[in-house]
Design goal:
Elements (H helix, E strand, L loop, with lengths): L1 H10 L17 H10 L5 E4 L2 H7 L16 H15 L2 E4 L3 H12 L2
Parallel strand pairs: 1-2
Helix pairs in contact: 1-2
């Protein structure tokens, strides 16, 4: 799956668009590089607290979540946060949905 996702990300060619990649795209270094540098995209990390992430991941395996290193949920969260921090150039805390949405809209309207 990760290889296919990476290949698809590298083929995207768009302008002035929103692309919601999903969480596993941070494992696709070439694809993320393409989005960030070739398409000149802003990469926005919508950050959740571990508790909120845990609540959303109550059916971790059923959702088809990509966990390539078969980490525990907490270690998986930490790995994804680390990768998101590397790949993104802006982070928005979305634990408070209204505040997160306002910040996202402000960022998009700048």
């Amino acid at each position: 799956f990760l290889s296919v996702e990476n290949d698809i990300l590298k083929t995207l060619h768009c302008y002035n668009s929103f692309i919601s990649t999903g969480g596993s795209s941070v494992y696709s270094q070439q694809g993320m590089f393409h989005l960030k540098h070739n398409l000149h995209s802003d990469i926005i990390h919508l950050k959740l607290s571990f508790d909120e992430f845990k609540d959303r991941m109550n059916c971790f395996h059923e959702r088809g979540v990509v966990n390539p290193h078969e980490l525990s949920l907490e270690e998986f969260y930490k790995e994804r946060i680390k990768l998101c921090n590397i790949q993104s150039n802006h982070t928005i805390d979305v634990n408070n949905k209204k505040k997160g949405l306002t910040e996202l809209l402000d960022f998009c309207n700048r």
